[in-house]
Amino acid sequence: MKAVTCHAFGPLDDLRVEEQDNPTATGRQVVLRVEAAGINYPDGLLVQGLYQMKPPCPFVPGMEAAGEVIAIGPEVQGVKVGDRLGAIPQLGGYAEQVAVDERATFPIGDADAAEVCALMVAYGTSHHALKQRAQLQAGETLLVLGAAGATGLAAVQIGKLMGAKVIAVASTTEKQQIARDAGADEVIGYDALRDDVKRLTDGKGVDVAFDVVGGDVFDTCTRVMARNGRLLVIGFASGEIPKFPVNLALVKEFAVVGVFWGNFTKAEPQVYGANMMELMNWYRKGQIKPLIEGRYPLAQAPEVLARILNRGAVGKLVLVP
């Protein structure tokens, strides 16, 4: 099979598509013929050695995949050859085939494989952030930064489903329109973020802020939080990890809440499973709809990762082996 391979941590351009042995299914593993592999911001950090996890090299990146089961291990209980599944292999998704424990999969029926990939990390992160970490309530105001990215768009759609008033923030007119089309109640840019949020909330501030950007934007968020607000730390797409003046949390009485979806899936697998069932139910009903910006061959993995790291992408991007 062909697979995108990282032989040593370094520049994205060092990634190579190479022939590898087909995976075999042992224990409770199943082998998927990959129809789509999701591309995520952490993948780009991982291959450069900048992520929390540093797997031994060489390795194949790719934490989410969807496709058809072509082999099952001797201990597999609930999956058969021919089933179509979404899967979280953690590594190995950027390939024509991937082996994954059946417990890290879920049935997708005839759903679009690329859209299923979007539901895993992007929608999964936003869902966990808003439901478990922020405990977002109907009638609250939600501020979504990076609202045209895959995770941001998911937060806009899920926030609306949960009954919140959503203020979306995006950098360009094109991205702002994408957020508006996703259902945001208000759409603004970054230039006058503090003043705009104060104006749109009549000076009260926001109950929940969903921050995937970090840097100066995080600093602005700390100044527009309502009392009892929750500032969600999702990631640092700006490349800058901010310093937080804790006295602001004291005097304004808001909480800064970390969101690490990967840790959540391992620590609370039953809750994660229930979340995925809810997301798939919303998806099948048409209540959420991922935006797939592009589908690319394996060979284009380096340039697509670079676009994501440089905040040039909108919606979800996937590899199609």
UniProtKB/TrEMBL annotation:
Q: Report the enzyme's class at the first EC level.
A: oxidoreductase
Record's superkingdom? Bacteria
* Residues covered by the Enoyl reductase (ER) domain: 10-319
EC code(s) of this entry: 1.1.1.1
Pfam families from the UniProt entry: ADH_N, ADH_zinc_N
| Record's keyword terms, sorted | Oxidoreductase
Instruction: Note the InterPro entries from the entry.
Output: ADH-like_C, ADH-like_N, ER, GroES-like_sf, NAD(P)-bd_dom_sf, Zn-ADH-like_protein
Which molecular function terms from Gene Ontology are attached?
Answer: alcohol dehydrogenase (NAD+) activity
Task: Spell out the protein name for this chain.
Answer: Alcohol dehydrogenase
Question: Gene name, please?
Answer: adh
